[in-house]
User: What shape does this take?
Amino acid sequence: MTNVEYEAVIGLEVHAELATESKMFCSCPVVDGTLAGPNVAVCPVCSGMPGVLPVANQRAVEYALRVALALECEIKGTSIFARKNYFYPDLPKGYQISQYEHPLARNGRLSITTSQGSKIIRIRRVHLEEDTGKLTHIKRDAGNETGTKYTLVDLNRAGIPLLEIVSEPDLRTAEEVGVFARSLRSILRYLGVNSGDMQKGVMRIEPNVSVRTEGSREFGTRTEIKNLNSFRVLERSVAFEIERQAAVLDKGGEVVQETRGWDETSEVTFSQRRKEEEDDYRYFPEPDLPPIVVDPDWLNSIREELPELPMARRLRFQDDYGLPVYDASVLIDEQAVADYFESVIAALPGVHPKTVSNWITGDLFGLMNRANVEINGVRISPRALAGLIDLIQKGEINQKTAKRVLSEMFDSGRPARDIVDAQDLGQISDTTTISELVKEVLAKNPEQVATYQNGKETLSQWFYGQVMRAARGKANPQVVQAELDRQLEALKNDSV
Assistant: This one.
């Protein structure tokens, strides 16, 4: 074992399918691969028939420009499609239409915040291409035979507009990689260009990982981990690959430049093939597609229509609402959640924003997680949640009752007031009633009272629980505590 310290150098290639209605170079509809039957959205263009001509999807170009602007890229006035020659069993024409020497945009940036502070990650390029089809490998039957029996090809995905975002190798840790990927996904969702549903493969991430001696400026030999579609897997695979490469170097070995996969069962990366160099793809300009020329007026109109982006919204939530960084970050992660939060604030002027944040990120999120629904599927409208908080602020129900009411609102969609009135859940704040409840509890528990008088004052919390139980949880906690303290103090004085 050596004492050499290593530093990881990581860059990401992120592939995001653009949420257009039709494919990149033909009029075939974009279908949900998890719902549609195989090969139902295929035509001569995306199936690679001889003599067909592709036509670029203008909406896909617009979506790509949205992303490039959001990442503060330099937009090229003219970009050129190229043929990327490579054996693609799921692209029948044998090459992919992509961009290489003249991409749509270059030199962007994305700010991330980790446990180590803020950092700028440079964006090398943003370019358009087409997605590949999908292969399904059918394994041989059990017995002596092993391996693949045959492979099925589904071309529904072939030709879907794909945006590739390539970072510079500015990332150093698995944490930074995870934060960068999550931040990018949030931006894509805010822009409305990608659903972010990684389980469906609409966003796939390929980290390029190398290690070098701490303090060195030379890059090590990199490996690429292919087609990762969850943040957890992304972070674990990068962490493993860093450790694997460091161990290879510690033993005096050499890291091989290759493409690796991730084995979820064993939680290790494994070799797939030697990594190709750019020259191996034999790029040349696509002869059937003219250059993309971006009209300045069109670009300005796209820029003006950009929504408030996650980072700007987080800072505004901190400044305008006085929210802690954590609360603001959680709320803005999903645009729909941030919109919901602001709608509750608007429906209840004067409410403390932190109170609303607590109810959304705590109790409401808990109910959503158990039901496996997102905010848009919740039956509690922002105005309805504001109504519940208003009942608490007016002292009509206490926090414990409010949690119960929220759960019933979540299940039934009924407003808080209806549930409170129907079940007689209104808070008891009358001092005379509470005084009688306290007196009754103390009278029924003489042994505990005697123990309290003999110095075990921690029993006051037990008495408090008994009073709240007698009140069926409806008593005002502050009034109960004050009256209980008064009567216990009187008992203590009587015992002296």
About this structure: The chain is about 40% helix and 20% strand.
